[in-house]
Structure prediction request, 58 residues.
Amino acid sequence: MDIIQAEFNESQIEEIQRLAAAMNMSVEEFVETATRKLVAEAKDRVKEQLKPRLKVIK
Prediction:
């Protein structure tokens, strides 16, 4: 599994902490869930972009 690194400023950290608390999650759980959702969305977008090309190749 690849490691994703990110840097956040103080206000972004506070927002992540606030959102995690609002969802009754630890910050770690919130970040892991958000990361999984972002990766899934990115994969879906790539698949959609590749569909026309895949049809031509078949």
